[in-house]
Amino acid sequence: MASSSSSRKPEIKGRGLIDEVFSWSVRDVLNVNLYKDKPNKLTILLVKQIHQQVKRIPQTFSSATDYTKSFVEPLLEETHAELLSNVKNISRASTRGITGGSTAKYFEFPKDLFYNLLLEKKSGSENKKGFYEPEVGDLIALTNRIPTCVDDLSRPNASAYVIALVQRVNDEVPHKIQVICSKPYAFPDKESKRGGEFILFAMKIIDKVLNGDSKGSKRCSLCSAEDAQNSASPNLQEAISTLNLNPSQKTAIWSCIAARECQHQETVNLIWGPPGTGKTKMISALLFALWKMKCRTLTCTPTNNAVVEVAARVCGLVKSSLEYDTYGFGDIVLFGNGERMKIGGFQELNQVFLENRVSVLADCLSPTFGWRRKAESMIRILKYPKDEYSSVGNGKTIDSKEKVPKNTKSKDKKLSFSEFVTERFNVLEEKLTTMVRNLYTHMPTSFVTLQLAKKMMKVISLIRSIGVSITGNDGMRNELLQVLEEVLCQTVSFPKSTDDWEIGNFCLKTASLIFCTASSSIRLHNIVTKVELLVVDEAAQLRECESFIPLQLAGLRGVVLIGDEKQLPATVKSEICKKLEFGRSLFERLVSLKHTTHLLNIQYRMHPTISSFPNKEFYGGKIIDGPNVIKGSYKKQFLEGDMFGSYSFIHLTQGKVEFDDTGSGKNMVEVAVIIELLARLGKECVAKNRKISVGCIAPYKAQVDAIQSKLQSVYGRRECKLSVNVRTVDGFQGCEEDVIIISTVTGIGKKSIGFLSKPQRANVALTRARHCLWIVGNGDVLRHSSPIWKRLVKHAKNAHCFHVGNNDKTLDQAITNTLVVFDDGFLKSMINLKKPESCKEVHSLLMKLSGGLRVPQTGDVSHDSILFNMYAVNCSGFKLVWSVVMMEEGVESVQVLKVWDIFEGSLKQSQLIKRVNKFYRGCSEETRSRCKEKLQDRDLEVPKSWSKVDNISKGIASMSLTKEAGSSSSHFRDGKSGESDRPRP
């Protein structure tokens, strides 16, 4: 959309907050405690008192002013924390080149520093990561070079960067934007040697905080759901009855309709939608009903993905109910950033997306080339063909504004009368029919009545019917003339403006259903119109201060909040704000105040064995399993064995949790087990030609990355129909898969489970699976780290779903391969072992060693080397020689057990000692020193890790974990040798 042509100075929402952010220096941004103890000098939103520290947000408020003031300082603290987080990761920020700029006409020193910027253009095929796409409300930095670290922002030249806020984006020409800057910005001359100019994305700032009253009202005693249903039109009753809703969904919908019809009080309806209970289906049905009622409704969500999903579902229902082509879509509008919403994958949304609609209507309403011009031209060619023929010089030319089809005769050649009329008609036919259809599709039904829409459709039908017989079909031609003139007469009230912004506002003013994110709803405050009902999906994920924006719209009489406070809340970066409950949603606060809620109580996602624990733990057993999930056919056994049923806890005793510099952890034993499970599922897909979707959920990004890095082995066969989705818990809310594998990232040395200890995250992780839920981790650690997980482990044991991972042969092999590396000499010796009992004894000893247990060495070990160990294998007479070596992966070096050989007799012992000592003499002193170091966790010895050492010897470096198996990376099980990739422990 082009920017408005209005000369009015743009209003800056939340100016107090913006000015404060503009005042921060780099030192201020990096100061974690900037607002913890510092007196607040702000006067944002009429708050004039000086507070010594931010205060906890209360549950109830005495007035609207008190309500607003409670969020001011936490909002500022959270804004600072979010900016701090993004600045620390500045090397990964999105960037874009600036090709030009100038001061805007509203520019006024010293505060209103408005600039128009021209950005580097994005090619049609370009979709590179890190390419900045501007959106109104973005906080950006203008800089003459792309910073690689925080220090680059505080270098001596003070003009290195300028903070700015995006005020306007030209949607029609998206590389043109308007910003307001924190200080004057000097654009370089063309001859300047300053280098390139860049935009650096910093964060999305909260646009506006308005005062309001959050108190939820109780239901009106005079307006019930039953009364609303009984008094509704038969058409509405039939529409809802055909949507296959369960009783709880119907009750929720009719309660909302009753609230809308109520004239006695404003109401707030809370709809509680636990996982799998058809929340999105219920919302879509409600909005579909409101569309039929022509109730002006705004639907908001916290995120682009959520609003697109709801809008697509509603459009699907509307499309299936339309009786007259696409007539009716004009009452629905979705607006926001098209690229971030990724609406390209939803065909129906192209009919309702505001940017597309504005472009279409601007063409149709153009006084020069629009639909009226085309209609008038069609009337002239039908009514006065000879005059038209004469006016263009006996057919020598055709209106230069109309494009002649390529297959027609040359415009320079003289046309006969018949040829001219036919050619002229054909040119107009395509344009006019397209524009007429666009009008009844995109114009609201308040402007295009059903009667008018039918006439428009008749125009299209008649034009197509006349076709090439234009000169010989008088009856049909006269009918077309009559209908066209009637339509022209009835459309004189259509908007005359061709300004994109004004057309967009017209669409928003007249729509019945409006969809956008909560933050984007700020645009509606600048439009003189009223919204009757506000519907907020994922309301428990929307911070209450963000809900201020849509809650303050004029004319609002009812609010519907749909969510589940038992699932993930809004993200809050500031630890201070977390303690102050800044992330609390309006939904959660009203629930805590015992506000009446409508529970959607039938779940259709999880097999009953999966839903059993979360239903009892988080929802008090109030959820009923739907008829589809209790059918025998819903139970799937994708892999053989009790360990791989619908619900399973796979207990692992080996493995250590390693943390990186950001505090993100991973357990490579769990990774190995999960990769083995995925590989077996992949084989199942190929063998039985079936599709299986799998979700792998982990609490840490490091674990997600570790799993993803090893997925290639799962997709070795092209015909595999296994789809794998690996995400953190936060990224999985709203998703579901056939099989969910939860990696708890627990193991030796881990005393807690971090994020998963929070009930809301645990709930999300445990409720994503349809047919199978497999939990991988250390049950003992989980039992002692969180009450929820203690109860879950107990529940799994009581249900006979608790299994030891080592009891499965292939999982046991994967675990062993992760913890131990074998020398070729050992593998050859194992092949030569004749007694199966001896093989079992060796394997038992190896499992103890890999698990961290250590036993006394045999007494005849030479003391000339303390780098290796010699253990007796029970009473078999054999001796096992092993040592600690350093292995590399990524940026770390890790201690790993290497098993050298198993033997009998002193001669082989002497030879082996010499070979091991020779190996270590080839290592650096630092490497040998690290091989000797020990890390104890109670009675267990666990591996240590270091940042990668540059001087590791060639002998050790050749044992890279990412290489194919060779002499130093072969593996064995039950006396048989084998080869595999060597994952890190």
Automatic annotation (TrEMBL):
Q: Where is the DNA2/NAM7 helicase-like C-terminal domain?
A: 583-779
Pfam families, alphabetized: AAA_11, AAA_12
GO MF annotations, alphabetized: ATP binding; helicase activity; hydrolase activity
Highest rank taxon of the organism? Eukaryota
Q: Which UniProt keywords apply?
A: ATP-binding, Helicase, Hydrolase, Nucleotide-binding
Q: Which SUPFAM superfamilies match?
A: P-loop containing nucleoside triphosphate hydrolases
Q: Which GO terms describe its cellular component?
A: chromosome
Composition skew (Basic and acidic residues), residue ranges? 971-985
Segments of this protein annotated with the region Disordered: 960-985
Keyword Hydrolase attached: yes
Listed InterPro entries:
DNA2/NAM7-like (IPR045055), DNA2/NAM7-like_C (IPR041679), DNA2/NAM7_AAA_11 (IPR041677), P-loop_NTPase (IPR027417), SF1_C_Upf1 (IPR047187)
Q: Which residues fall in a compositionally biased region of kind Polar residues?
A: 960-970
Q: Where is the DNA2/NAM7 helicase helicase domain?
A: 244-575
This protein is called what? P-loop containing nucleoside triphosphate hydrolases superfamily protein
- Source species of the chain: Centaurea solstitialis (yellow star-thistle)
